[in-house]
Amino acid sequence: MVAAAFADFMQQVVSGLASGGVYAALALALVIIHRSTGVINFSQGEMATLCTYIAWTLTVNHGWSYWPAFVATVGFSFLFGVVTHRVVIRPVERGNVLRVVIVTIGLLIAINGFVVWQWSGEPQALASPFGTDTLDIGGVIVSVGDIGTIAVTIGIVILLWLLFQFTKVGLALRAAAVNPNEARLVGVRVTWMLALGWGLAAVLGAVAGMLTAPSVGLDPQMMQPILIYAFAAAILGGIDSPLGAVVGGLTLGVMLNLIGVYVDFVGAELKLPVALLVILVVLLVKPSGLFGRPEVKRV
Amino acid sequence: MNPNLTRVTGFVGFALLVVLVFLLPEWISTFRAQQFAYVGIYLIALLGLNILTGYTGQISLGHGAFMAIGGYTTALLMAGNEQFGQEGLLGIGGGMKDVWTIPIAGLVAGLFGLAFGLPALRLSGLYLALATFAIAVALPSVVKRFEEFSGGGSGVNLFGLPELTAGIIPVDIAGRELVFNDWLYYLCWSIALVLFGIAWLILRGRTGRAFRAVRDSETAAVSSGVSLAHYKTLAFGISAAYAGVAGSLFAIATTFVNPDTFPIALSIFLLVGVVVGGLGGLSGLVVGAIFIQFLPLWAQGEGVASRLPGFIVDRTKEPGAPAIIYGIVLILLMFFLPNGVGGLFRRAGQTLTRWRYSRSG
Questions:
Q1: A193 in a structural domain
Q2: Helical ranges in A38-142 per DSSP H
């Protein structure tokens, strides 16, 4: 009895980690952009949806198998992010933050319209690359898809960490984010670094989209709730902390899954408000989040 | 620019607006009158949001939530929630005439605004934007959850209630018979113009100066003796009260409220309207309100889509195309009119003054 309850609990934890991995990837995208450009990209979710549709077109209409389509989509999303920054964001980057916010909202509306226009609003099915098998690990039944999602997320995060920590480009990226003026003085091409940041963020979004589409179904609104969970995750971990985004995403995924299953009052309906309650509580109690540094203003 | 001249042009402009507003229904159909009534409603909400965002510098992405509070206050006071089985303390009998619910809706939303203003003191900039966004996103599911109080997902219907003025039989005002849409138009715009005047009065004096000081530099404001807590909370309260009145009129205009009457898109469009109208100015907001109401309609309309080349808008794939146009127009506006339409007005005013003085001097 107890063992069965425990197995059930562990199953919920694993599937929570899988959805948490998706939140973490998108939260990390938000954090990368916020660190380098100081804005929140409201169109992050729609950019991811667009890329996922491209992967879907490649697999269904052109007969590619999942992984080549995955790689091609990652490449496309990188270019897409870079071009978006160069063409749309850069002209408004200086001046009022609100302008950039409105531009990203404009992007959100336009990309969503494009997706509906091109692929119609009907939900599509993207096949899971991991199949639908389940594994029995000591009485705990977990789906291979969940494990695959967690593995891909962890892999991407490690790759990014290696890029930021151990390459020259990574160093330049960090320098451009921390102090753009001084970085420019020592020869870092700051605007290109910012564009590169947008590209990497778009890649993370595309990966999140492709991982989540098999389980929730691909439709133009797919990423909107996930973007809100990603906001919550980024705030929970600290909007300036990449580590925080990952930990925040995983924590949120597990927490929401457990609350949704075990707290009757919440159920499936109030999952979203609970995530938003997390945002509010964190912002009020510790605005810098779990891993962020408190903001210090110069007078 | 000469301050006296600014004031005179301001007064003249406002007087022209008043005259135009009251003459407009003579030239348009009652269907158009209803659309312009919505412009008046959006104007009220934009005035409130600009007091908060444009003058006090606090970004809100959740003003639709305050509109929802106003709308639900009006709906429940008119229709009552005992029909859903709510009894006791929160049971509302209904039966109040629609116009009397409007000030109450403003008051209730204003109190919620004050209450939210207190925790919001700790937040600023994008954090505040996200917190308010969270509230607006969460509200529909919360409303659905407390079904007995709010009518849940199916909402509250006001159509055909005797409390709805001009709902069934035309209303007689000063010897003129007004059908519902015309009555709605005059109701919304009378309130909008009064609230415009009140906003101007609030912002021109001591309070407005304090708001602007908070916006420009919190540190400098505090060291000049401006209480941040007092003025930020006050701005939230006033702003929410405006939104509450707008929400109340919105409920009357649609004769129906449910959680999807006030979607997150509404909150976003309000912020868009303020930025398009021009932050920190009142006159441009009229254009902002027109923008919110008519751009989506215009983008959907026959005219635009058919004139664009086929590779941009495929007429056979109708859905989605208006949204593409809307988004692109929004982005282009931010490129070319960074200070909104209000900024354009100000520049025109400056040119006018320069022309006038260079001629006389």
A1: yes
A2: 44-60, 66-84, 97-119
Bridge-based pairing state of the strands B171-173 and B156-157: unpaired
ipTM exceeds 0.90, yes or no: no
**Does A283 fall in a domain?**
no
* pLDDT score at B166: 72
Q: What residues have CB less than 8 Å from B122, skipping those under 6 apart?
A: A283, A284, A287
How many domains does the structure of chain A reveal?
1
Per-residue pLDDT tens over the stretch B25-47: 888 888 888 899 999 999 999 99
On average, the pLDDT of chain B sits at 84
Rounded Cα distance between A263 and B291, Å, is 44
d(C-alpha A201, C-alpha A87), whole Å: 16
| Full-model pTM | 0.84
In a domain, A266, yes or no: no
Other residues' Cβ atoms within 10 Å of the Cβ of residue A12: 16
Tell me which residue of A225, A280, A234 sits closest to A31, measured CA to CA.
A234
Q: Please give, rounded to a whole number of angstroms, the shortest distance from the CA of A109 to a CA of chain B.
A: 5
Tell me if B48 sits within 8 A of B243, measured CB to CB: yes
What is the pLDDT, as a whole number, of residue A48?
A: 95
Residue A98 distance to chain B (closest CA, Å): 8
* A105/B330 CB distance under 8 A: yes
For residues B54 and B274, is the Cβ–Cβ distance under 8 A?
yes
Mean per-residue pLDDT, A141-157: 88
